[in-house]
């Protein structure tokens, strides 16, 4: 039977001694070497049914598994043998992994099934006493039908309870990863208040920050615990910001001359004296809270069962805390770093908002990681630029590295995908949950409204220039200060936090030595890939944090590829490559030769077309890139030559000579694959009947994966630029009517595999309805194609 799915594993388990790992989980002791082969094999298989609590139940479970044409597992184990075939062994393991014999696995093809699905199996055809431990270890690390390893599923079913007679070592590691040995009843929850030593709400008092912590109780975990912190501004709810978004309607402004030096703004907030230290109370006398907050992060839930403490905070201006929101300002980084210093044992916190008693995180081992997606992951990068005491690593998903690259692009106001009209002030309002506390609303309303007014002015939607406001929110300026290991995750089709954000931080950090910086690139949009079947994301994160926070050597930084990327044609194939930001090979094409003409013109009447014919961006964009006749005079379409068996790797460069009949203008360029046919979907779907438990919770999470989808056109990448900013977003040049300008536009970075059937088209036009402002004035543009070219970075 044909196998129609693939697993991709990037964690390397060859680093470990198989018997030592089997001994670690108390599956065997040194008597393994005295037992017969048959006895050891029976011990192993008898332990594979931990949720069967009687001899009879285990017997029935064994009978449900077929080994060969004559025997079920129960009958098979009654024979006395000194060796077995690897095929018999792997057929049993397949069924223990919950794959279906006859539906997914052909009889007699148990080993080949695993090979075809991408799993790493041992090559020997016979198993005996000399290699039995190797095969048993290999079986336990294989991926089950629900995406988790066999050992993870066994532990979830109670395997370790039988192994250790309810005295399970905590923490417990297997193959360099932490096992889920903690249950809900083993945890306690507490709320503390961090003195940020800044005063953002101008009440002449230090802003106190609410921090919620879930961690193992001391009586069940007699060890110092590492901490995972997630800074989540959405933690306590959001405001309805729909009525407060900015209208995108309006023409571009003629800008005054402007020149701002990038990196010239001050980074940190002025530090105030610390609040007076009160009596430091003992950990055991601190009153606990059962409340942990409004929402959690799935990756953290996974680690909460594995011996890690998990902490959340909403941040300045969120419910339960003091201060104001600033959408990525230096004050948010300062406050977050204060929380890290408490969690790592380097500063005190208070037990209540009145600051009546102090407390120390005496339970912490001093090692903190940050995780999170989007704004959450953004603050992880922000904190890493400050190197607070105790921060050892970050796992940052879909994160912003420069807020200018989120809300602006090359001198233009450019919205994040799906949020036309949003800006920094709108986000600050959205996340200002502090005034959900009734006592806070009137107290803080006027000062917050004043801060929003100041933010609207400073963000400067009028010009779109890069200025001091954006420079303070550009973490790339301080990237050289990041000294910790970093794992970044991003979607190549994420048009919310666009790929330039992860590309730029990777380019900065790749210049440093002495740290591991890795990136995982999937074909999705703005998602977290913790539930994706086709690669071992949870295992990667487990090995990463177990090494970074527990200090266990597991070779993850040595063996993990610098770049892991999901294939754009086959979504179940993931590639490893050494670099993304530097590509030496270039393919260069003159646009006149491609188009067959020297000059080409188009007009920007796209706002008029959108308002007259469309009610949503999705339908408009589909028709636009399908090149419907209605757009014939509104864009240039240039076919690129076939570049078979190559991969676009990095940023496409467009050198263009262009003029317009106005003092203002903008350019959008997009690379589109037409008649794309089979292609990786941008979204995932649930894998039928496959669920997994991310931790000790009773409910199961559906397993998901990307899938192949037939599509008429696929947007590979795009880019936007204001013609008044061709020297940079921080510099204004004047545009004069009907005078040619020479510009260089770098499109959003991508990795995109091309085949002989790939039909790639370059689109050149002006306003982009989903992203740029919507100019009302109809404007003419002319491109000198003879003096224009496109440069593709090719891998």
TrEMBL record:
Catalytic activity line of the entry: Hydrolyzes Xaa-Pro-|- bonds to release unblocked, N-terminal dipeptides from substrates including Ala-Pro-|-p-nitroanilide and (sequentially) Tyr-Pro-|-Phe-Pro-|-Gly-Pro-|-Ile
Domain X-Prolyl dipeptidyl aminopeptidase PepX N-terminal span(s) in chain numbering: 1-159
UniProt KW Zinc keyword: no
GO biological process: proteolysis
Family matches, as Pfam families: Peptidase_S15, PepX_C, PepX_N
Domain of life where this protein originates: Bacteria
Domain Xaa-Pro dipeptidyl-peptidase C-terminal: 542-791
Root EC class: hydrolase
Family: Belongs to the peptidase S15 family.
Complex and partners: Homodimer.
Protein name: Xaa-Pro dipeptidyl-peptidase
Originating organism: Oenococcus oeni AWRIB429
């Amino acid at each position: 039977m044909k196998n129609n799915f693939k697993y991709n594993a990037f964690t390397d388990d060859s680093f470990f001694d198989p018997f030592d790992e089997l001994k670690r989980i108390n599956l065997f002791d040194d008597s393994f070497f005295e037992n017969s082969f048959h006895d050891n094999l029976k011990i192993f298989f008898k332990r594979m049914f931990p949720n069967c609590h009687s001899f009879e139940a285990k017997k029935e479970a064994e009978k449900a598994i077929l080994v060969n044409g004559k025997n079920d597992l129960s009958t098979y184990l009654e024979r006395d043998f000194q060796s077995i075939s690897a095929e018999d062994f792997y057929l049993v393991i397949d069924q223990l992994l919950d794959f279906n014999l006859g539906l997914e696995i052909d009889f007699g093809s148990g080993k080949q099934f695993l090979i075809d699905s991408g799993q790493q199996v041992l090559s020997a055809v016979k198993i005996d006493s000399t290699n039995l431990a190797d095969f048993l270890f290999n079986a336990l690390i294989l991926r089950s039908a629900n995406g988790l390893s066999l050992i993870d599923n066994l532990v979830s079913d109670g395997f370790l309870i039988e192994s250790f007679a309810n005295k399970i070592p905590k923490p417990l590691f297997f193959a360099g990863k932490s096992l889920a040995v903690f249950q809900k009843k083993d945890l306690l929850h507490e709320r503390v208040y961090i003195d940020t030593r800044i005063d953002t709400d101008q009440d002449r008092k230090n802003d106190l920050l609410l921090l919620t912590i879930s961690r193992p109780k001391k009586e069940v975990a007699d060890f110092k615990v590492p901490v995972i912190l997630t800074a989540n501004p959405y933690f306590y709810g959001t405001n309805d910001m729909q009525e407060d978004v900015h209208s995108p309607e309006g023409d571009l402004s003629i800008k005054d001359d402007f020149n701002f030096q990038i990196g010239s703004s001050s980074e940190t907030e002025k530090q105030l004296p610390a609040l007076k230290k009160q009596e430091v109370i003992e950990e055991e006398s601190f009153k606990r809270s059962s409340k942990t907050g409004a929402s959690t992060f799935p990756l953290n839930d996974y680690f909460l069962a594995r011996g890690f403490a998990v902490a959340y905070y909403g941040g300045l201006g969120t419910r339960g805390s003091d201060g104001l929101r600033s959408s990525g300002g230096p004050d948010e980084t300062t406050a977050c770093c204060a929380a890290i210093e408490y969690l790592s044992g380097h500063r005190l916190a208070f037990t209540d908002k009145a600051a009546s008693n102090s407390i120390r995180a005496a339970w912490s081992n001093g090692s903190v990681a940050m995780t999170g997606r989007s704004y959450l992951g953004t603050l992880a990068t922000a904190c890493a630029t400050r190197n607070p005491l105790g921060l050892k690593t970050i796992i940052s998903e879909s994160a912003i590295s420069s807020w200018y690259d989120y809300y602006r692009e090359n001198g233009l106001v450019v919205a994040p995908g799906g949020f036309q009209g949003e800006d920094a002030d709108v986000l600050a309002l959205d996340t200002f949950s502090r005034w959900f506390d009734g006592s806070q609303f009137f107290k803080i309303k006027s000062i917050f409204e004043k801060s929003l007014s100041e933010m609207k002015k400073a963000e400067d939607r009028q010009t779109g220039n890069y200025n001091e406001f954006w420079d303070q929110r550009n973490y790339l300026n301080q990237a050289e200060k990041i000294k910790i290991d970093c794992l970044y995750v991003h979607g190549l089709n994420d048009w919310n936090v666009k790929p330039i954000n992860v590309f730029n931080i990777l380019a900065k950090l790749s210049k440093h030595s002495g740290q591991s910086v890795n990136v995982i690139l999937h074909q999705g949009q703005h998602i977290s890939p913790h539930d994706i079947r086709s690669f071992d994301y949870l295992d990667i994160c487990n090995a990463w944090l177990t090494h970074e926070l527990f200090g266990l050597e597991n070779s993850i930084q040595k063996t993990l590829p610098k770049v892991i990327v999901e294939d754009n044609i086959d979504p179940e194939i993931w590639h490893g490559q050494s670099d993304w930001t530097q590509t030496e090979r270039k393919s260069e094409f003159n646009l006149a030769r491609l188009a067959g003409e020297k000059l080409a013109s188009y007009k920007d009447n796209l706002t008029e077309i959108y308002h007259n014919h469309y009610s949503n961006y999705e339908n408009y964009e589909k028709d636009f890139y399908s090149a419907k006749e209605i757009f014939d005079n509104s864009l240039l379409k240039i076919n690129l030559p076939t570049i078979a068996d190559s991969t676009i790797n990095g940023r496409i460069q467009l050198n263009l000579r262009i003029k317009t009949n106005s003092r203002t203008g903008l350019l959008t360029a997009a690379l589109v694959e037409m008649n794309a046919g089979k292609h990786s979907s941008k979204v995932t779907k649930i894998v039928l009947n496959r669920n997994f438990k991310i931790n000790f919770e009773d409910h199961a999470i559906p397993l998901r994966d990307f899938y192949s989808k037939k599509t008429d056109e696929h947007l590979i990448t795009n880019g936007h630029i204001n013609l008044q900013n061709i020297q940079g977003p921080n510099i204004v040049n004047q545009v004069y009517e009907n005078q040619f300008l020479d510009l260089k536009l770098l499109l959003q970075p991508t990795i995109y595999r091309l085949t002989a059937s790939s039909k790639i088209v370059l689109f050149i036009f002006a306003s982009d309805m989903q992203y740029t402002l919507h100019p009302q004035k109809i404007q003419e543009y002319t491109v000198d194609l003879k003096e224009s070219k496109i440069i593709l970075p090719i891998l």
